[in-house]
UniProtKB/TrEMBL annotation, chains A, B:
Superkingdom per UniProt: Bacteria
Keyword set, alphabetical order: Manganese, Metal-binding, NAD, Oxidoreductase
PANTHER family: D-MALATE DEHYDROGENASE [DECARBOXYLATING]
Species assigned in the record: Edaphobacter modestus
Pfam families the UniProt entry points to: Iso_dh (PF00180)
MF terms in GO: D-malate dehydrogenase (decarboxylating) (NAD+) activity; magnesium ion binding; NAD binding
Keyword Transcription regulation recorded: no
Protein name per UniProt: D-malate dehydrogenase (decarboxylating)
Cofactor(s) of this protein: Mn(2+); Mg(2+)
InterPro entries reported for this sequence: ICDH/IPMDH (IPR050501), IsoCit/isopropylmalate_DH_CS (IPR019818), IsoPropMal-DH-like_dom (IPR024084), TTC_DH (IPR011829)
Domain Isopropylmalate dehydrogenase-like: 5-350
Length: 354, 354
């Protein structure tokens, strides 16, 4: 029997409420498709862990989760307990970097039953992927300040891009575009304003495109690209972007499809040298944590992406279909989507549909 | 008679087509409200100028436009002639910096007659300002590359924020919020990912807020803020942002109100030590240049902002009302707004309405 070892990290806030529903659906899929999940749950990478241990992760975190087949992650961050730049950099960002999960993959798809905030769009109209560089770029922690606390204070932070880092994410994105029917790729740039790194990004895109003659491509500056997500979302197929631009686009894209509450993401190490991590795009939402009303769909959909990555593509597709089947029913949706279900009933409904 | 000396710079592409319509309406306003405009037109800050002189501006550009009361600017850039990072950095960005136009003010307003891409929104629902820091931050040109042309290439660009730079834009934004009925300010941040400059930005916002106890404020990370522009645009009143984030938000905001084709902007030196510059948010649009179909509304609305800045507030408001009066009529709108007018007829209609 095929067995997958999964590291389960619920994290903070609603992460702890939606992860169990994600697992419920994953286990239903395992039964149905004849594979086994070996689950190990960890309490680190959470603000409560930090308050107890004064660090986000144990010393040996790499040994403890580094040989799992994948990481099933909830959400981390609770600003009233620990500042975000400590909790997130000490866990999620560290996983992404040290496990070299350089491709952050986020589907943007208009699902049935979700009222679309854009006028006149129907399911099928919006269906693309944002591919985000996930390790370098604008998220470097290099920099500092001079004359702190004075009128003359100057604060500097460096954006660092490498040819290796850019080329491998572009290759990933072009390969994805090549597999999709429309075979089109869009690059997010800002070479008219960010005058050193972004022109470099552009030249690497041009270069990489030569190796994919069957893929058409274009580029937009990030400001007008964000505008087109609203005005012409049907234009996109695969959008590749730097760390920061990808972060923005992969919240904006799901917003255009109705709610970021259901968007999943994969933090992928394509070479499979390290475990990849699957998590909802939404955060830990301290404001609604503990009330049992969090929307579990993003976590469940992340599970589908995880199965797909593990090679259980049929099971992954079946979970997405189960989500699509359940979403149109108000009584099976959580309140954020205008429904009356709670986290558990919404999760059970999808497991049952499967 | 009150006289204002205006430097007129049409620039490239459709800039040359919409600036004359902007002037038509400005002159109509001058006649009606009893002031005079002394106009000096310049051909520099355009790609054609660059092709002739191998630079975007003459040596003495500061003397030639530095003592005008304002600059009425079209658009610059034509990538097939001159790369954007040369044409824009050699003109527009230089004006912004050397004339210390540190406040970029961009209204986001749903206008009558414009179909809104967001479902269920009506004029009045969306009405806020984006205040963008316009001189520093992510748009620094400091950085470079090592090992160029090799596999090991690393490219670095620095984001530089100063206390002076942040504090003065925050003060401008808080003062604007104070003047508006809702007295609310939203700060765009990304302190959970951009770990040095953005936490610093946040502390300056907290500090500045103390001087404006009558203004309520909140902050959002840029990713979720972009999402809320789509999901809850009625939530915003004044949004203050760094150079890059402001750039993105001030295209995204107008997109959410139907078309960035009509959005104006002011590049303002609040201390009035240098002329402020007023320009449409849209660019030079080489693809439709020369066809006489460019939408002149953004240029005309920019003229209204310019008059407001010059103290002719009544005239400025009258132009905005004239725009609002004309927009609902299809035959007076350009094709980008589903109308049948050309640039000149659309401009004349607004001048007539005035
Ligand atoms: C053309 C470009 C450099 C400019 C900017 O990014 O500032 C433009 O997008 C704007 O918003 O005025
Ligand atoms: C929480 C934050 C650091 C993170 C990011 O910006 O990468 C989040 O927004 C995301 O998109 O996963």
């Amino acid at each position: 029997e095929r067995t997958y070892r999964i590291a389960v990290i619920p994290g903070d806030g609603i992460g702890r409420e939606v992860v169990p529903e994600g697992l419920r659906v994953l286990e239903a899929a395992a039964r149905k498709f004849g594979f086994r999940l070996h689950l190990d749950e960890f309490d680190f990478a959470s603000c409560d862990y930090y308050l107890k241990h004064n660090k986000m992760l144990p010393e040996d975190w790499k040994e403890r989760i580094g040989s799992h087949d994948a990481i099933f992650f909830g959400a981390v961050g609770w600003p009233e307990k620990v500042p975000d730049h400590i909790s997130l950099w000490g866990s999620l960002i560290q996983f992404r970097r040290e496990f070299d999960q350089y491709a952050n993959l986020r589907p943007v798809r208009l699902m049935p039953g979700i009222p679309c905030p854009l006028a006149g769009r129907a399911p099928g109209d919006i269906d693309f992927f944002v591919v985000r560089e996930n390790t370098e770029g604008e998220y470097s922690s290099i920099g500092g300040s001079i004359f702190p606390g004075t009128h003359r204070e100057v604060v500097i932070q460096e954006t660092i891009m490498t040819r290796i880092g850019i080329d491998r994410i572009l290759k990933f994105a072009f390969e994805l575009a090549q597999k999709r029917p429309r075979k089109h790729l869009t690059s997010a740039t800002k070479s008219n304003g960010i005058s050193i790194t972004m022109p470099y990004w552009d030249t690497r895109v041009e270069e990489m495109a030569k190796s994919f003659p069957d893929v058409t491509w274009d580029k937009y500056h990030i400001d007008i690209l964000a505008a087109h997500f609203v005005l012409n979302p049907d234009r996109f197929n695969v959008v590749v972007a730097s760390n920061l631009f990808g972060d923005i686009l992969s919240d904006l894209g799901p917003a255009c499809t109705g709610t970021i509450g259901i968007a999943p993401s994969g933090n992928i190490n394509p070479e499979r040298l390290f475990p990849s991590l699957f998590e909802p795009v939404h955060g830990s939402a301290p404001d609604i944590a503990g009330r049992g009303i969090a929307n579990p769909v993003a976590q469940i959909w992340s599970g589908a992406m995880m199965l797909d990555h593990l090679g259980e593509t049929e099971a992954g597709a079946a979970i997405v279909r189960a989500i699509e089947q359940v979403l149109p029913h108000k009584q099976l949706r959580t309140p954020d989507m205008g429904g009356t279900a709670n986290t558990v009933t919404a999760g059970k409904a999808i497991a049952d549909a499967l």
